[in-house]
Amino acid sequence: MQKAGDQVRVNVQLLNAQTDFHLWADTYDRKLVDIFSVESEIARAIADALQAKLSGGEQRALAVKPTNNPEAYDAYLRGLALEARTTTSPDDSEKAVGFYELGAAGLRPCQSDVRPRPGPFAGQQRCPWCSRPNRPTTRALG
User: Fold this and answer.
1) Is the pLDDT of residue 82 over 70?
2) Which of 115, 120, 122, 123 is CA-nearest to residue 142?
3) How far are the Cα atoms of 45, 107, 136, 137, 141 from residue 125, in angstroms, in the given order?
4) Is 116 left (phi over 0), alpha (psi -120 to 50) or beta?
5) Predicted confidence band at 95 (pLDDT cuts at 50, 70, 90)?
6) Gap between the Cα atoms of 140 and 121, Å rounded
7) How far apart are the first and last CA of the chain?
């Protein structure tokens, strides 16, 4: 996945893990605000490529947006990415927690004077998303 401004490009490939045979691929170019609809579109395309029949519950699950705030979802994904590293430092773990908390609160340090708690972003002068200066903290959550 590549992101530039409010645009996102998702390159998807489906391979047979046993044979390394290429089954399907596609590229999706969308506005970042449509990221949840492209996720559902990709999941449906993969199910079609596998000729899988989705149950009613699975179809409903694809239709549900996890949040209306793409920035909160971005924070959550950043936390997941840090947590998924094969080698993590205590600093990475602390940053992951900070991203999860920012995502849960739907906040960016450059846009809000609220912080989830003193933590990995407390001493930073710039937002980890966009590098803009953080607003001064006037209150904390939790």
Assistant:
1) yes
2) 115
3) 42, 16, 9, 11, 19
4) alpha
5) confident
6) 12
7) 33
For 2-5, which contacts have Cβ atoms below 8 Å and span 24 or more sequence positions? Answer: 3/32
Instruction: Please name the residue ranges forming H helices in the chain.
Output: 35-49, 56-63, 70-84, 90-105
CB-count burial class (<10 Å; 0-12, 13-18, 19+) for 92: middle
* CB-count exposure of residue 77 (10 Å: 0-12, 13-18, 19+): middle
What whole-number distance in Å separates Cα of residue 72 and Cα of residue 104?
7
> Residue 103 has which token pair?
């995502």
- Beta bridge partners, 115, equal 140
> Does 12 have pLDDT greater than 80?
yes
Instruction: Count Cβ atoms within 10 A of the Cβ of residue 122 and give its class: 0-12 exposed, 13-18 middle, 19 or more buried.
Output: middle
Name the token pair of 38. 């492209």
Q: Answer whether 32's CB lies under 8 Å from 48's CB.
A: no
Name the burial class of residue 111, with classes exposed (0-12), middle (13-18) and buried (19+) by CB atoms within 10 angstroms of its CB: middle
Average pLDDT value for residue range 86-113: 71
